[in-house]
Design brief:
488 residues; mainly beta; Tachylectin-2, Chain A; seven-stranded antiparallel β-sheet; five-stranded antiparallel β-sheet; 1 helix
Length: 488
């Protein structure tokens, strides 16, 4: 197969970059794997990739495994041959895991890109694009596994979401045709599908779209998995201020039974740098979705809470591009999966799996650290005082003028100003914090309150220092995330 059909280059020709080390079981002494996987970039090393080369993950759990499906995106190390085997490559990589830490490469969902999708995109782009498949979404209907896939040309609304079905999560999958398509005259952009069934009515809905006109939702025919009304492009459910130049994309819709709410996760800003996840919620899967401050996500208002962003803890070069999430409810324990781009080059793409916790207010927060398989332990008040690294998230200023909402080639400079940085703060026995704006804490055995922000406290793995520690995650009054980990 031509190399152009398997590499996702996006606006900067860099979405294709990422690599991975042989992953091993977590212990109390070492990380499960090294973040830099540049030593195993060739295709023949794919059994060692693990969480490497994962972009736009979608996850499903079966009786035996967790399965993740992702965009056709691969890191190619300069000067190293990527395709070093005669094996024919397909589209949509599949990985599986028993513990959400160690992942095996299974293969590809499809042998090739369906021709109707290619023809549609090429008819509007002068035969450009449609070289790979983006942002698959996995959904189970009865005994059938459905993959909703996207084919497009970067920077164009000429896009196509199709459906493929199989009887096994590992395939083979057979193409079933178009669900929704858009062209250069469309308001929206047909990429990034996410599907959910209404718990009350039984209706099935698909959220999709990108920053061309915002995110939309349309009803599906449950029996076929296709649009209930062929040609329907749905209605607007989420956009943002300055949507012509600022990214909103990657909807992920889930239901939380305890709160009886549907949560719509979306991603903002350039995927190569300041990609970050926001969320709103609704009584209904088709909206309206309201954010942390009660704003309708369909209005041109930037929404909160912000759950992730570019960040750097001490003893690590930093992570950017922390967006386009998949969310899993594993029998009441929630996880968020997203890509993370490893500094300083932001070319290697690792899948981050983070525990997702829920505040009493019904809003989610995610762990400051990637999941390493450790069990939660009870924490008493006496364990809170000490030295912590704390990150109070905020939006960051672009380093360069964006193109199509993305960083143009050469527009990224490795600099600490491109990250939300941690501060070392002392939490004292008397409930004080040595910081001018974050200055007091209380703890009730589960929730740590910092000023007026309530945070969830739990145990986890400190990847930067390779040890077990205490973590917290919460939402500040301004709607941004605050993360902390105890380091002494």
């Amino acid at each position: 197969m031509n190399i152009s059909k398997i590499l996702f280059t996006a606006s900067l020709a860099i979405l294709i970059l990422a690599v991975g080390c042989n992953e091993k079981a977590p212990s109390q002494e070492t990380n499960p794997y090294q973040d830099d996987y540049s030593d195993i970039t060739p295709l023949s090393q794919r059994d060692k990739w693990g969480t490497a080369n994962v972009h736009d993950p979608s996850i499903i759990k079966t009786d035996s495994f967790f399965y993740v499906y992702s965009t056709d995106a691969y890191y190619i190390k300069q000067g190293v041959k990527f395709i070093d085997t005669d094996e024919k490559m397909g589209n949509i990589p599949i990985r599986r895991s028993k513990d959400l830490v160690n992942w095996d490469f299974v293969g590809w969902a499809l042998d090739s890109i369906p021709q109707p999708a290619i023809d549609h995109v090429h008819s509007y782009t002068g035969n450009k694009g449609a070289d790979n498949m983006w942002a698959p979404y996995i959904y189970k209907h009865n005994d059938t596994y459905r993959i909703y896939y996207s084919v497009s040309s970067f920077g164009s609304q000429a896009s196509y979401i199709g459906l493929a079905e199989g009887s096994s999560p590992e395939g083979p999958f057979t193409d079933k045709g178009v669900v929704v398509k858009t062209d250069t005259t469309s308001v929206m952009n047909a990429i990034d599908a996410s599907v959910i069934k209404d718990k009350k009515t039984g209706k099935v809905w698909m959220h999709y779209g990108s920053y061309f006109g915002g995110l939309h939702v349309l009803e599906l025919n449950e029996a076929t998995g296709l649009a209930k009304n062929p040609g329907d492009q749905g209605k607007l459910v989420a956009t943002r201020a300055h949507k012509e130049t600022r990214v909103i994309e990657a909807p992920e819709i889930i239901y939380h039974p305890e709160f009886d709410q549907y949560y719509l996760f979306v991603s903002y800003d350039p995927l190569f740098t300041f990609y970050n996840v926001r969320v709103g919620r609704s009584d209904n899967p088709d909206g309206p979705f309201l954010d942390y401050f009660g704003n309708n996500m369909a209005d041109e208002t930037n929404n909160f809470p912000m759950l992730t962003h570019s960040y750097m803890f001490e003893n690590h070069p930093g992570w950017s591009g922390n967006g386009h999430c998949g969310v899993l409810n594993d029998d009441g324990k929630f996880f968020m999966l997203h890509q993370g781009r490893l500094a300083p080059d932001n070319l290697q793409m690792r899948m981050h799996v983070r525990e997702m916790k829920w505040l009493p207010s019904g809003w989610p927060v995610v762990s400051p650290e990637r999941y390493a398989g450790l069990k939660d332990k009870s924490i008493n008040t006496g364990e809170i005082p000490g030295t912590w690294e704390i990150i109070n998230f905020k939006d960051l200023v672009d380093q360069t003028e964006l193109w199509q909402g993305q960083i143009p080639p050469g527009g990224w400079t490795y600099d600490k100003s491109a990250f939300n940085l941690s501060e070392k703060l002392e939490l004292s026995d008397d409930g004080k914090i040595n910081h001018e704006s974050i200055n007091q804490w209380t703890f009730d055995g589960e929730h740590l309150e910092i000023n007026n922000a309530k945070c969830i406290v739990f145990t986890g793995w400190d990847w930067e220092n390779e040890k077990e520690t205490i973590l917290f995650s919460g939402i500040m009054e301004n709607g941004t995330a605050i993360w902390g980990k105890k380091v002494e």
